[in-house]
Amino acid sequence: MDVASSRREKVVLVGCALKSPPKTSATPLSLEESLDELASLTASAGGAVVERLVQEREQYDSAYLIGRGKLRELEEVSQELQAEVVIFDENLSPAQQRNIERKIGCRVIDRTQLILDIFASRARTREGKLQVELAQLNYMLPRLAGRGVELSRLGGGIGTRGPGETKLESDQRKIHKRIHKIKEDLERVRSHRSLHRAHRHSIPVPTVSLVGYTNAGKSTLFNALTQAGAFASDQLFATLDPLLRRIKLPSNREVILSDTVGFIHKLPTTLVSAFRATLEEVTQADLLLHVIDVSSPHRQQQREAVLRILEELEVSSKPTLEVYNKIDLSTPGAGLFSQANSLSISATEAVGLDSLLRKIDELLSGDPLIRARFLFKQTNGNLLSGLYSCSRLLGRSYVDDQVLIEVEAPQSVVERLKKFRVGA
């Protein structure tokens, strides 16, 4: 269902936090800040927030997450405002979700189900739809007992966009069978990607992957560098399906730039595993561009959230360039992080893009640029043309029927042409 054309459902948000949360090295979002993000997610899903309720507790209630008094308040507010959906910022157990629904009499979902719902509405390719369906099925499976509902309630609103187009009855055997089939299909996608990647590596062409928090401007930067015209929007999770395009760097060598799904706080682990085929573009990249929205007041927490997910993907040791985007929207003197491998840009205003491309050239250490001199016969036009297309010309002179050229080129190119190389 097209959320843009549908009626916006009335939503009550509920945030619950521990007074003494577990100590972590990360900088946490406050309860209100986390609810602000949940409100943005709700708007992305087509909902209209009519009220927020918050509670801090010594420990979560095992039956309702929130306390009994706050539950009564939620029931009264929901009825008074005629809310259709209540969204909890914390993940609910299947029992908690059922208990709250029975008490307040309207649909209850949690942050994970909301994100899955947005993904279901945004997936466009068959691969994207399969990945979302797999994540939804894994999420719904433990929640079926006693509900007697169908997984796909077509035509519903927030939290009811079902897994794909197939209606599945709440029969665990059928669901397990469907999960197995999706995994097989995604494995074929993965194998297909591996073949393409092997072909790219045989040439070879370095790969640069854009990563970052959702809505940090990755797709806008991707478009600015590639003129690809990919969908970019000021909304969360505008990009789900991976995009790959070739671009030329100042050295004249080509690299493949990939744009991938954005990350977020409390990103469901089921999504990380379901999107394994897509995220392999990140795991196989030669360089990561970590795009950070410098205009966001929560840029530090967003940066840390991405770094945690990169650790989960076991790519945190990869060469990474931090790209502070949206400097046109940031306040003067906004504190940037002092990192050796970082720079500031505005993708929408095309500010700093030349510096970014030069920095990418420098950081692709797997295939470094080196100076080399070659002596070709003038009849070697194809070799000359190929070398010119992927290197920077430094000098050229003619000797009889031969041409002596000096270039700055990737080491892999120099190796392929080593029989024509002269000098050290």
- Quickly count the domains: 4
Can you tell me the CATH architecture of the largest domain? 3-Layer(aba) Sandwich
Low-confidence stretches: 1-5, 148-155
Shape: elongated
Measured distance between first and last alpha carbons: 64 Å
Strand arrangement, largest sheet?
Answer: 6-7-5-8-9-10
Quantity of strands, as a count? 14
Would you give an account of this structure?
This protein has 424 residues and is α/β, with parallel strands linked by helices. It has four domains: 9-117, GTPase HflX, N-terminal domain (Rossmann fold, 3-Layer(aba) Sandwich), CATH 3.40.50.11060; 123-184, no CATH class; 204-363, P-loop containing nucleotide triphosphate hydrolases (Rossmann fold); 369-422, no CATH class. It is 38% helix and 21% strand. The chain has helices at 31-44, 68-81, 94-104, 111-122, 126-140, 172-202, 218-226, 269-274, 276-283, 299-312, 353-363, 381-389, 411-416; strands at residues 9-18, 47-57, 85-88, 107-110, 207-212, 243-248, 254-259, 287-293, 320-325, 342-344, 369-377, 392-399, 402-410, 421-422. Helix 1 (31-44) packs parallel to helix 4 and helix 5 (126-140) runs antiparallel to helix 6 (172-202). It is elongated. The protein starts with 8 loop residues before the first strand and ends with a strand.
